[in-house]
Design a protein that fits this description.
Distance between the termini: 53 Å
Oligomer: single chain
Shape: globular
Number of helices: 16
Helix content: 25-40%
Largest sheet: 7 strands, antiparallel
Radius of gyration: 24 Å
């Protein structure tokens, strides 16, 4: 199949407002893939190349070569090129990656370049990622959707599941099993404003502390331990303290879901950046150990527990001493979690199975939302769906000697908001530097965020975590924006 056909399918899906129409269009594209292209092609449609780590970022894609006049690239051509790109390492690797990427882009038409750029950067934004594509796989292969979802849960690779479903049908999907040592997609939580609203979604439930740690999935089979991240990457060598804790359990085999978190001596958490830095380093700093805290068990001593209700899985978790605190009085649990410096709580339906990869109503997280009124200092031109729009906002607070930048965000912006802010910011433009438009500091935006962390990247020494735009505030003068002092006051 020509790569251009996948790019066209993506554009069609982006233009379709309804889920059913998106599924039908994606199913049509999946059926058109040659058998050897199915794994890679399904990944491209979901915005996730088969080669998980490519080693390239936005800088390598800022100035693409002139597009090809006609489509000639096949899906197999792109897959082979990304294989070569992912394999590049060692001295001069950055230049070699740029050259390989430029060679691939030079063979792509303008629409293919836009699609390929979005896939490589993980910024497809066509309204049909893994969830909708799972439905499309079921439609294309004419198999029950529940079979596809379960296979995705157990295998964690949409491309492999699509390839199997299209080749072998339901019988092939039935071959996927929980394997100790192979990671599963993690179950996810939806959100609610308060505990009462969460309980309306879940029904009878237990309430657990929501820790601001790094999600881990721990597999033990005898003396072998493997630890995986929420993106299913293995990080076992980085976490010897978690390996030690797993080996100390009185079990033969187990699969656990939980968090690794850096705690102070009094049991309160360090800022997330301490956990993140320790979790990400390949040379563990034992001066900052990570404590594993588990909240679910998916397999125990030869028995799979995925389909058991949460209450039974909780009973089975009693074998593990490092458990996330939980209780039945939601407000009391929330108060205790916040008092210890944690994010909030997760309300979990007692009768629900473990639905890996799903963000449904069985798990609902509740945490206080921080908001600030900040000023836009600059904005970057978007790409992909946001081509031609000013997207990534540079955010600033009022400091004692002028505006202090706190970070950037493009999250939370609808198409209507993008169009409005582009027009408004161009009216405020002062100068341009490459893809950045610097503006007069006049437009106020209301920003929601999860916390403030120390950051040497910005003059104020801090940055916002998970900042997203709630709304523009053209009614509010910049002089009434929040100060750096107010921002610092939100730190725990």
């Amino acid at each position: 199949m020509l790569f251009a056909e996948l790019a066209a399918a993506t554009e069609d899906v982006r233009a379709e407002p309804g889920r059913k129409a998106k599924v039908e269009r994606l199913a049509l594209a999946l059926r058109g893939l040659a058998p050897e292209e199915r794994r890679a092609g399904a990944g491209y449609l979901a915005g996730a190349p088969r080669q998980r780590v490519l080693g390239v970022g936005w800088a390598a894609l800022q100035e693409p070569p002139p597009p090809a006049p006609a489509a000639s690239l096949t899906v197999a051509d792109v897959d082979a090129a990304l294989d070569r790109l992912a394999a590049i390492s060692g001295a001069g690797s950055q230049a070699a990656r740029r050259a390989e990427l430029a060679g691939l882009l030079s063979r792509a038409t303008a629409s293919e370049q836009a699609f390929l750029t979005a896939v490589v950067l993980g910024d497809l934004r066509q309204g049909a990622l893994a969830g909708v594509l799972g439905d499309a796989v079921a439609r294309a292969a004419e198999v029950p959707l529940k079979d596809v979802r379960r296979a995705l849960m157990l295998r964690g690779d949409l491309g492999v599941v699509a390839e199997t479903a299209l080749r072998e049908g339901a019988a092939g999907l039935a071959g996927f099993r929980l394997e100790v040592g192979r990671p599963l997609q993690p179950m996810l939580a939806s959100t609610a404003q308060d505990v009462a609203a969460a309980l309306e979604k879940t029904g009878p439930a237990a309430v657990e502390w929501k820790l601001d740690g790094a999600r881990i999935q721990v597999h033990r089979d005898g003396g072998d331990v493997a630890i995986f991240t929420r993106t299913l990457d293995e990080v076992t060598p980085r976490l010897p303290e978690v390996v030690e804790a797993a080996l100390a359990l009185p079990v033969r085999s187990i699969v656990l879901d939980g968090e690794a978190i850096a705690l102070r001596e009094d049991g309160r958490p360090h800022p997330f950046q301490v956990t993140g830095s320790r979790f990400g380093t390949r040379a563990p700093n034992h001066a900052i150990p990570l404590t594993p805290m588990f909240f679910d068990v998916l397999h125990l001593d030869g028995e799979d527990l995925l389909d058991r209700p949460a209450s039974e899985r909780s009973d089975a978790l009693a074998v593990v001493p490092q458990r996330v605190p939980r209780g039945s009085d939601g407000e009391a649990v929330l108060a205790a979690a916040l008092a210890m410096g944690h994010e909030g709580v997760v309300v979990k339906a007692l009768g629900a199975p473990y639905e890996a990869g799903r963000r449904g109503s069985a798990w609902v997280k509740v945490k206080p939302v921080h908001t600030l009124d900040l000023v836009v200092l600059a904005a970057e031109w978007g790409h992909g769906r946001r081509q031609g729009r000013l997207s990534n906002l540079h955010l600033g607070a009022r400091g004692p000697d002028g505006w202090v930048m706190l970070g950037k965000t493009f999250k939370g912006l609808t198409d209507a908001m993008l169009a409005w802010q582009t027009e408004k910011l161009l009216e405020l433009e002062e100068r341009r530097e490459r893809h950045v438009v610097y503006v007069r500091p006049e437009l106020v935006v209301e920003i929601a965020f999860d916390g403030v962390q120390t950051s040497p990247r910005y003059p104020g020494g801090v940055a916002l975590r998970f900042a997203r735009v709630l709304r523009h505030r053209p009614d509010k003068p910049a002089a009434q924006a929040d100060t750096l002092e107010a921002v610092l006051a939100t730190r725990s």
